[in-house]
Amino acid sequence: MLALDHIIVAAKEPKTAALAFASKNHIKTIEGGKHEKWGTYNHLAYFANNCYIEWLGIFNQRLANQSENPLIQQLILALDNSEEGPIQFALRTENMTSFIKHFDTAMTPYIGPTDGHRKKPNGMDLTWQMLFPQPKKYFPFLIQWGNSMNVPDDKQLINKQNITNIATTLPVNEFKALYQHRIQANHFQLANTNLQFEEEKKLMFSISE
Q1: Residue 170, exposed/middle/buried by CB under 10 A (0-12, 13-18, 19+)?
Q2: In whole angstroms, what is the distance from residue 198 CA to residue 184 CA?
Q3: CATH of the domain at 140
Q4: Is the pTM of this model over 0.85?
Q5: Least CB-packed of 30, 81, 141, 144 within 10 Å?
Q6: In-domain check, residue 207
Q7: pLDDT > 90? residue 104
Q8: Which residue range is the domain that position 58 belongs to?
Q9: Residue 201 covered by a domain
């Protein structure tokens, strides 16, 4: 079953944006690291229901511009338009191969699997793969972790709150066809949170204990 892995928040200054959110919501955030290949870096907040928020920014515009990663392209577009805030979310899977087969059968265009890598502040390597379905709108990408999941070494840095709900404007029927899951009354229950389909809202999310 798919789970929410993380929510991506576009930020010109990830640390500043993360600390402002942390102060308002009484949570802990930590420095993430750099994606050297993409010219991006992040700040993170982890939650009790096994997901996190990533404030993502650019430290090297040239590298970011050269990247073919759809998420980096989406980030550049958002920041160029001064649209800071939630722009995307990732769904965690343990069987990316099955989605590749499904997309191929349905003749759904996609990009990937794309390899990801960054060094954690403790020097450890973190690896993952991403798969980006490419219909007309920005649908969430799929992520499968490699050697370990993205969790802090110090479990005290995991906030006691949960990300309890995500609201998206994505079309319900297309989402259902892409990810092969039942949707009832505009709600889709992920393994660790609720996904709600709205008509007149930007991507939003809620947290609570």
Answers
A1: middle
A2: 13
A3: 3.10.180.10
A4: yes
A5: 81
A6: no
A7: yes
A8: 3-155
A9: no
